[in-house]
Design a protein that fits this description.
Elements lengths: L2 E3 L5 E5 L2 H4 L12 H6 L17 H14 L4 E5 L2 H4 L9 H16 L3 E7 L5 H5 L8 H16 L5 E6 L1 H11 L9 H25 L4 E8 L2 E3 L4 H14 L5 H5 L12 H4 L5 H4 L6 E6 L3 E5 L8 E4 L19 H14 L3 E6 L17 H19 L3 E7 L19 E4 L4 E4 L1 H12 L1 E3 L1
Parallel strand pairs: 2-3, 2-12, 3-4, 4-5, 5-6, 6-8, 7-9, 8-11, 11-12
Antiparallel strand pairs: 1-15, 9-10, 13-14
Helix pairs in contact: 3-5, 7-9, 8-9, 14-15, 15-16
The structure holds beta-D-fucopyranose.
């Protein structure tokens, strides 16, 4: 038996997002978010559910922290709901919102858990969407103001920050495909949104640093290794374009000050609303790269497609590995490959695995025990891949499994269960799954036997 072990001081934890767990959507001065509006619109959520209550974590947060502590976690990636801080996305902060996250951070620190907040995990104040949403360039400034507010409120205790969660996903799915809030299907709006978000990333980075220069700031990028489906040069080139579009669109801008080559006909700067001087604004020398990864992507060239000239093949990933209940392929090497690719492209920078996980519906048996062996197998594989990337020279500092609690999985409602802890949504009863105990042991031993 060989041993998989991790560097000393490696952080072990989970990731969550405000809208997916907090509930209490309209209390203590919180404004409406685009996800409140979206899920309250019939036909948007597969199960018809909403995030109005979710895991009730806005009220049960002490219980959540006790769970993490019992499981020996040393880091917690959570998100701050922007509309709790600024109901309309602008103006003076709401004291009750600040107080909530401030107490929360204190309690994490007292429990020996590193607070690792994300400023934007998709719950945009609806008032800002009413002003045009992310396609409106002004939002970059609004976001930087909000970052400054949070830096002033928590920066004395929070050392590590995540600016944005999955910029290429929320712009694509929210503004181009319309499957997520705000539910728009508009290529022009999408193109402009991507540029505003890049401006927002650079400007909020500087806003946080201006308040606390020692803050350690990054973004959680959704990443997926893009592999050519066939052996042709056309497939290989298409895979690179797809990589540029999905993985690099907010990274190359930050670290190199330029957009990567994603489009066959060249980057549509004008349609994106790029102005002189913008490429200085989008730059941000991120202190770490956050990687959210669920699978790989197989890519086939499609000559007639004038936008990208590429087509992703397979159901979120490839077609060879086993599938989770979401239908996503289990392919552990994808995580190793992605870590090594960004390390090769951008040099040996600190990396945090900010999300990685799987949906399986296993619930409590008659004895109240949740045997979710498939989830243990999943994490065993992906953690092995992280260890391999570290052995090959990558600087990975921490791992955050998605997720602590079964929760509101966006357009899927409560139908996809990703948690280490099962939640009975009728009673809010929490039950630690076998996988949660297994992960606790990995954290305690900083490794596991293969
Ligand atoms: C990611 C999201 C996260 C969660 C997982 C399953 O794309 O960042 O909120 O929904 O997928």
């Amino acid at each position: 038996m060989s041993r998989t072990s991790f560097p000393e001081g490696f952080h072990w934890g989970t990731a969550t997002a405000s809208h997916q767990i907090e509930g209490s959507w309209d209390v203590d001065g919180k404004g409406e978010s685009i996800w409140d509006r979206f899920s309250h619109t019939p036909g948007t959520i597969r199960t018809g559910e909403t995030g109005d209550v979710a895991c009730d974590s806005y009220r049960r947060w002490r219980e959540d922290i006790a769970l993490m502590q019992a499981l020996g976690h040393t880091s917690y990636r959570f998100s701050i709901a922007w509309p709790r801080i600024q109901a309309s996305g602008r103006g003076a902060p709401n004291a009750k919102g600040i107080e909530h996250y401030s107490r929360f951070v204190d309690a994490l620190l007292a429990a020996g858990i590193r607070p690792f907040p994300t400023l934007y995990h998709w719950d945009l104040p609806q008032a800002l969407e009413d002003e045009g949403g992310w396609p409106n360039r002004d939002l970059a400034g609004r976001f930087a103001d909000y970052a400054e507010i949070m830096g002033k409120a928590l920066g004395d205790r929070v050392s590590h920050w995540i600016l944005l969660n999955e910029p290429s996903i929320f712009t694509t799915i929210g503004y181009l495909i319309g499957y997520h809030a705000p539910g728009r299907k508009d290529m022009e709006a999408f193109l402009r949104a991507t540029h505003t978000v890049n401006l927002a990333q650079g400007m909020s980075f500087r806003a946080l640093k201006a308040v606390h220069p020692k803050s350690i700031v990054g973004t959680a990028f959704n990443m997926t290794p893009c592999e050519p489906e066939g052996d042709s040069e056309a497939d290989a080139a298409a895979a690179e374009r797809w990589h540029a579009f999905l993985n690099d669109w907010y990274l190359s801008t930050a670290l190199r000050g330029r957009y990567p080559e994603a489009f066959v006909n060249g980057t549509p700067f004008e349609r994106m609303g790029v102005r002189d001087g913008d490429m200085d604004l989008v730059r941000a020398d991120l202190d770490f790269l956050g990687i959210n990864l669920y699978s790989r992507t197989l890519v086939r060239a499609l000559p007639q497609d004038q936008n990208l000239g590429a087509m992703a093949v397979g159901n979120l990933g490839g077609n060879e590995g086993p599938r989770t209940d979401f239908g996503w392929e289990v392919w552990p090497n994808s995580l190793r490959d992605m870590i090594l690719r960004v390390t090769k492209d951008y040099g040996r920078r600190p990396i945090e695995i900010t999300e990685n996980g799987c949906s399986y519906a296993d619930g409590p048996n008659e004895k109240g025990v949740v045997h979710d062996q498939r989830r243990i197998d999943f994490f065993r594989g992906y953690l092995g891949a992280v260890a391999e990337a570290i052995e090959k020279g990558a600087d990975v500092r921490g791992y955050h499994a998605w997720t602590l609690l079964d929760n509101f999985e966006w357009a899927e409602g409560m139908a996809q269960r990703f948690g280490f802890v099962h939640v009975d949504f009728a009673t809010q009863q929490r039950t630690i799954k076998d996988s949660g105990r297994w992960y606790a042991q990995v954290a305690a031993e900083n490794g596991f036997d293969r």
